[in-house]
TrEMBL record:
SUPFAM superfamilies: Actin-like ATPase domain, HD-domain/PDEase-like. This is Ppx/GppA family phosphatase. Residues 367-529 form the Exopolyphosphatase C-terminal domain. GO terms for molecular function: pyrophosphatase activity. Residues 76-342 form the Ppx/GppA phosphatase N-terminal domain. InterPro entries: ATPase_NBD, GppA/Ppx_hydrolase, Ppx_C, Ppx_GppA_N. Coiled coil: none annotated.
Length: 538
C-alpha cells in the first residue's frame, strides 16, 4: 500500500524548495547548472514510480511518473471531468454530484497507483475546494474512502507552484507565468531559477468566466477591472508570458494545427502576443458547433474555450508582453520539482531527459559521454545554450541504431520532434532533429525536413549539420567504442578538415571513413579533408 504523505503546515513552504520558491534577492547570480552525461545517473533503477492527484475546479487528474526526478516521464495520465466549481459561486458549496464523482475518481486513481507499484502518491486541491464551504468535508471523505491525504493549496501556493512548473520545464525562463484553471487564474514571475516575490490570484477560471459571459454584466469590462486593480506593476510589459492550463494548451493546439506548425508539441510553442490575441478573438466569434470542429479542440473542451480565449485576450492586452510561450508543465510539475533537493533541481532538464532515454538504449553507454569530450573543440566559440544542445545531441546519438539503415535518419528526426522532452522550445527541437538526421547520413533535400528547417537560421542549420556529420564520422571511425575515439582528434580549419588517428588505434584510411569525412567537409564548407597519423605522446 502507498503510505499517506505527510504535508507541511498551512502557512509554511517546504524547506526543500529553498530560495527557488521563496523569491530572488537583488543581484544574486543563478547557480550554475552542470552539463555532463553520466551513465550511472541515467541508468539508475533504484527510484520507484511517483504519482500525483490534482483536484482542480473542473477536472481531477492522476499522473504517474517514472520517478521523482529532474526529467520525469509520464507513465500514466488520466482525468475525470468532475466540474467541482460548477454552481459554486451561487451556492458556496460543491454540488452533490461533483462531490460524489470526485471521491469515486480518487478511489479509482488510488487503485491504479497501487497496481502500478507507485511508492509515493501526493494529492493537491485548488480553488474550488479552497472556496467551498464543504471543501474540507470532501477532503475528509477522500481520506476515509480512498486513503489519500489531500493538501488544499492557498492562492499563493497555487501561483508559485505553477511558476515552479515553468522553471522546471524551460531553460532559465524569465517572464510572467499565467495559470488558468477551472476555478481561478494565477500570475507569478519566473526569474531564471526562482519564483519572484509578487503573485496574484483572480476568480477568473473557466467556470466562473463561463458563467460571467452568460450573465447580464459585460464580462470583458469585469475582467479588465480585476486585472487593473490587482496586477502588480512589475508584471507589465515583460518580454514573455508563459501560458499554463488546459484551456490555453488547447488554444495552442488549434493554432498549431491551423498554421501547420512543424513541431507537433505544445510545450515550447512560441508566437507573438499580438498573434495570440488575434486568434483568441477569432475563437470568440465562432459558434459552439464550429468551435468543436476545429482541429485540436475536443467537444468536451469546446464548452470552456470561449472563456479561455477571452481571458487570454484580456490578460495579454493588459500585461502587454512581446511573446506568448505555451507550457505543458504547471502546478503538478512545480510540486514535483519542489520535492527535489537543491543539487538535483540544478541539473539541466533537457540533458537529463535526453540521457535517461539515450544512454540506456545505446549500444555502448559510455560512448555518448566520450562524444561530448571529442566534440568539445569543434567550434571556436560556444555559448552555454549551444553547449547544452551539443551535449543533448551526443546523448541521443545512438537513438536509431535498431532501425533499418534506410529509415534511421527520418525516424530519428521524427522522434525528436515529438518526444516529450522538456527544457527546450520548438527551434531547439528542430536543431536537434536536423542534427540527428545528419548524424545518420540523411540527405538535406528530404521533403520532411522543410518544416524544421524553417525554424532555423542559416547559421543554426550549418551548425546542426556540422555536429551531425561529425558524430557520423565518430561512429564510423570508432565502431562506437570510447577507446578508439580517444585516440583520435578532429579539427576544422579555414580550408581543410583533418582527422588525426594514433597508430595504436589501428584505424586505416578506409573508404567508409573518408566518405563520411567528405560529408563533414561539405557541411563545414571546406574543400579538402584528410586522415593523418596522430603523434604519439611521450
Amino acid at each position: 500500500m502507498i503510505p499517506r504523505t505527510q504535508f507541511w503546515g498551512d502557512t509554511s513552504f517546504p524547506a526543500a524548495i529553498g530560495e527557488c520558491f521563496m523569491g530572488t534577492s537583488t543581484g544574486k547570480a543563478a547557480v550554475h547548472r552542470p552539463l555532463d552525461l553520466d551513465p550511472k545517473r541515467a541508468g539508475r533503477l533504484d527510484r520507484a514510480h511517483y504519482g500525483i492527484i490534482d483536484i482542480g475546479s473542473n477536472s481531477v487528474r492522476l499522473v504517474v511518473y517514472d520517478q521523482l526526478g529532474r526529467a520525469p516521464l509520464p507513465r500514466f495520465n488520466e482525468k475525470s471531468l468532475c466540474r467541482l466549481g460548477e454552481g459554486l459561486a451561487q451556492t458556496g458549496l460543491i454540488a452533490v454530484e461533483g462531490f460524489r464523482r470526485t471521491v469515486e475518481a480518487v478511489r479509482r486513481f488510488r487503485a491504479v497507483a497501487d497496481a502500478m507499484g507507485v511508492a509515493r502518491l501526493d494529492a493537491t486541491a485548488t480553488e474550488a475546494v479552497r472556496r467551498a464551504e464543504n471543501g474540507k468535508d470532501l477532503v475528509e471523505a477522500i481520506r476515509a474512502e480512498a486513503g489519500v491525504d489531500v493538501r488544499i493549496l492557498s492562492g499563493a501556493e497555487e501561483a508559485r507552484f505553477a511558476a515552479l512548473g515553468v522553471i522546471s520545464g524551460f531553460h532559465r525562463p524569465v517572464g510572467i507565468v499565467g495559470d488558468m484553471g477551472g476555478g481561478s487564474l494565477e500570475l507569478a514571475a519566473a526569474e531564471d531559477d526562482r519564483v519572484g516575490e509578487d503573485w496574484v490570484s483572480f476568480p477568473l477560471g473557466a467556470l466562473p468566466v463561463e458563467a460571467l459571459m452568460q450573465g447580464p454584466d459585460n464580462a470583458k469590462r469585469r475582467i479588465d477591472a480585476l486585472l487593473k486593480d490587482k496586477t502588480p506593476a512589475s508584471f507589465l510589459k515583460q518580454p514573455i508570458f508563459f501560458a499554463v492550463g488546459g484551456g490555453w494548451r488547447t488554444l495552442a493546439k488549434a493554432h498549431m494545427a491551423l498554421n501547420a506548425a512543424p513541431v507537433p508539441v505544445v510545450h515550447g510553442y512560441r508566437i507573438p502576443a499580438s498573434e495570440a490575441r488575434a486568434f483568441a478573438k477569432t475563437l470568440l466569434r465562432l459558434p459552439p458547433a464550429r468551435m468543436a470542429e476545429l482541429p485540436g479542440i475536443s467537444r468536451r473542451r469546446a464548452r470552456t474555450m470561449p472563456a479561455a480565449a477571452l481571458v487570454l485576450d484580456r490578460v495579454l492586452k493588459y500585461l502587454a508582453p512581446g511573446e506568448v510561450v505555451f507550457s505543458a508543465l504547471g502546478l503538478r510539475e512545480g510540486w514535483l520539482y519542489s520535492q527535489l533537493d537543491a543539487e538535483e533541481r540544478y541539473l539541466d532538464p533537457l540533458v537529463e531527459g535526453a540521457q535517461l532515454i539515450g544512454l540506456p538504449g545505446s549500444r555502448v553507454s559510455d560512448f555518448p559521454p566520450a562524444l561530448v569530450a571529442w566534440t568539445e573543440g569543434l567550434f571556436a566559440e560556444e555559448s552555454p545554450a549551444e553547449k547544452r544542445l551539443r551535449v543533448t545531441l551526443c546523448a541521443l546519438s545512438d537513438l536509431g541504431w535498431r532501425d533499418h539503415p534506410d529509415i534511421r535518419a527520418e525516424e530519428s528526426h521524427r522522434r525528436v520532434l515529438q518526444f516529450p522532452f522538456i527544457g527546450l522550445d520548438h527551434a531547439e527541437r528542430a536543431f536537434l532533429a536536423i542534427a540527428l538526421h545528419a548524424r545518420h547520413a540523411g540527405r538535406f533535400d528530404a521533403p520532411y525536413l522543410a518544416g524544421a528547417l524553417k525554424l532555423l537560421s542559416p547559421a543554426e542549420r550549418r551548425r546542426a549539420e556540422i555536429l551531425g556529420r561529425a558524430l557520423l564520422v565518430a561512429y564510423r571511425l570508432s565502431g562506437g567504442t570510447p577507446a578508439v575515439l580517444a585516440n583520435s582528434r578532429l579539427s576544422i580549419g579555414s580550408n581543410r578538415l583533418r582527422l588525426e588517428v594514433s597508430r595504436s588505434a589501428r584505424v586505416p584510411d578506409s573508404e567508409a571513413v573518408s566518405e563520411r569525412l567528405s560529408l563533414l567537409a561539405s557541411a563545414a564548407g571546406v574543400k579538402f579533408s584528410e586522415i593523418t597519423e596522430l603523434a604519439e605522446e611521450g
